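haha ok so turns out i had the wrong file open the whole time. this is the CORRECT one, sorry everyone. sequence first:
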Amino acid sequence: MLQHAKFHKVLANTEAPMKTCQTSTSCRSPLFLEKPWIWLIFSLYYFVPVYYTDYTLGQYVFLIGAYIAFVVLYLGATTMNAVFVWKPILIITLLALAVTPLSPGSSTFFSYVGFLIGFCYGTRMYLMLLGGYIGLILVLQLIYQYHVPFFALPAISGIVTISLWGYIERIRSSAQLHWLQSRQEIQQLAVIAERERIARDLHDILGHTLSSIALKAELAEKLLKQDKIHDVGQHLSDLHKIARESLSLVRQTVSGYKHRGLSGEVIQLCDKLRQNGFSVDLHGEIPTLTPRAETALILALTELTTNVLRHSNGNHCRISFQLDGEHVVISMQDNGCIKSITPGNGLKGIQERLHALAGDISAQISNGARFDITLPADELTQAN
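then structure:
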């Protein structure tokens, strides 16, 4: 009967004016709920007793005027702040009391009052008002002695059933509002998580390269003071190469590593290790992973390669891929001389990303440093 979407704002804040929901895909209502005037067709029962009863001209004018006032109040209540709905409810009730001595058609008004009290009030107040109105109808029936099917029966059955429907609509609308709020909170959390992911990616991608750029720039400056122009040119060339690689990594991160893929990145990392004096063994078949798992694994291997070049002091690295039951295991081991492994922001970032995929990373020292990355086999694509 009432446009329930207009009450969404009130359910969240009873001090705010009613507004229709702006999210049409989630707040859609049937046509008869979005257009409350359609339900006024049932109020035409009001004129049945008027048609079969003789009244004076003044009484006809009064009865018609009362109906017009009822329609205005009802439509006004559908757009009114729920805090003030008691006003049209009270006036419609007074109209029913004024009309009842002349016509049992006043029973129509009670049905519409029933929806208002069912939709706009909490359970306790709704039940109290419903009981009060049923008592009022019974008192009027005893006073004016109308035939029960013409007044008491339609009035009581109407206010009970229609108020119950309004109450159910209120619960449904409240649940829908909570769902919308929860969805907004989830979206906000997703934005926060994405910002944290970007921060980790920037650290993993640019942390080492920016340090290398600063170091080579400082070294080039010292060589320039010593007039070693050839060596300066070599370091500037290295700076240009590092900057290009950093730009490429950033672009790959933004595009989700789609243009080169895991195989291309692994080959690139192996070439990087070989260029820095490492021999590299690659074992196993590189798997085809889902985009999110591929991105996480590429960043993890990039960070581990950076750590090998920084801290290993070795000359050999082994990278292996294998499917172990329900998991994909990726191992990376060097032969460097290392006594302990202290996780920094890079390794912590890797762990957080892998945990989001139900994966993990473990580290151990055995003839160098060994890192084992595990991912669930569910992250394998069907093509693999």
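The two ends are 57 Å apart (CA to CA).
again sry for the mixup
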